[in-house]
Amino acid sequence: MLVTAYFTIIFLLALCVGLELTARRLTPPQSAPTAVANPAFRGFQTIFLRAYLLALWADWLQGPYLYKLYRHYSFLESQIAILYVCGLASCVLFAPFSAWLPQALGRRQTCLLFCLSYSACCLTKLSRDYFVLIVGRILGGLSTSLLTTTFEAWYVHRHVDVHDFPKEWIPTTFTKVATWNHGLAVGAGLVANLLAEWLHLGPVAPFLLAVPCLMCCAWVVLTDWGKEEAEGGPEGDKQTLLLGTPNGGVTRLSAKAQFSRSCHEGLRCLLSDRRVLLLGGVQALFESVLFIFVFLWTPVLDPHGPPLGIVFSCLMAASMAGSLLYRLATSTRYHLQPGHVLCLAVLMAFFSFFMLTFSTAAGQPRPHESFLAFLLLELACGLYFPAVSFLQGRVIPEEKRAGVLGWFRLPLHLLACLGLLALHGEVSGTGGGESGSGTRHMFGGCAVMMLAALMAVVSLFTLGRNDTDLKLEGNRGETDMY
């Protein structure tokens, strides 16, 4: 496995470079020329990216060795499953709080809170006490919720409400984020492997490295963002929503009222549009099994001695290759619609978990086949996320998107928690030892969930057979998405 991992990362990086060069040749530039030529926009974008990319880097550093660290502290698989469940459950509990907090406390202040809470989460990894580690997982759930909402909220607010840049320029920034994010993930695996294995600092080393990265992020938020707010005007950072009244006046909604309204409108949109409901079902099923995969990939491969940081980089490089293949597939040369790509991604994920039910048989493990299945799953993820993001942008109204996506995440985390609890129960039932059959059964359950997601995708396709809103603009009328 050691040799396999190193050869695989070299092959995947070369593949990504080749796909990137091909994609640049076949796809038009993603950035609007006006945005590129605007020095005020470029400066504002750079200030945002400095902080956000540091936050993402610190987050990725913690991925390769989390399970390994808990095993290093001699915890059983069932105990580790509970730690993961605590992290997922805290994501669910803190999701409403993280959506409300930036409006009440202020967006920049909430980004600083993220840096402090995630640093505390990393420092708890120094302790072998189970309760302290649970507290760390809860802090990690809060931090993850803040990371996925607060930084983007600050950027969009400053972009639109303060600088009055065109909304069409927003994707320019987040396209850069997506491009850098894959590279950061691959690099984080390599750096984590360097610290933990090559330098023999142990699995806690990547978590300790994340702390100064988070402090640098906090410094950028304090200084550069503070200076940007002072120059651009901080007014409106703690916003209230203005609504028209029948007599021509306005009503101010507090942050709490805004959040309540967003949840109510999101639920109404979810229940009134079957396309939204089916897309939410696909997301809940697909992404919940990814959380289970994040828990299981290390115990499946680690007994066979691979460098976990390099394996993590391989997985992230496979995901990068998937996103590049999406760009090629939806280019004007190949004319595939995002719906086609989404169906292919779900089918690949189903086949991956089907392979894992055989490669993880108790007493007869086949680690190379499992590794190949994991790579296939990450390739499917690279195809899935841009496809589902495009479809969400088409079927969910922009003003209701935050509320709808919040409802999407609720069953997603619930299914993941139930899956990990089921694995915990099966392992505990064997007397506290490890259970290869439990892992195999879990992969079998994931395959069934992927099959259900595939049925939901087919139902979505059938429902929207002639729906031009679900097609790429350039391909409308050329091919039928279904």
UniProtKB/TrEMBL annotation:
This is Molybdate-anion transporter. It is a multi-pass membrane protein. Keywords: Cell membrane, Ion transport, Membrane, Signal, Transmembrane, Transmembrane helix, Transport. GO terms for biological process: monoatomic ion transport. The keyword Heme does not apply. InterPro entries: MFS_trans_sf, MOT2/MFSD5. Mediates high-affinity intracellular uptake of the rare oligo-element molybdenum. The chain crosses the membrane at residues 81-100, 130-156, 204-222, 276-297, 309-329, 341-359, 371-391, 403-422, 442-463. The lineage of its organism: Eukaryota, Metazoa, Chordata, Craniata, Vertebrata. One of its GO terms (molecular function) is molybdate ion transmembrane transporter activity. It comes from Anabas testudineus (Climbing perch). GO terms for cellular component: plasma membrane. It is found in: Cell membrane. CDD domains: MFS_MFSD5_like (cd17487). The keyword S-adenosyl-L-methionine does not apply. Belongs to the major facilitator superfamily. Residues 1-18 form the signal peptide.
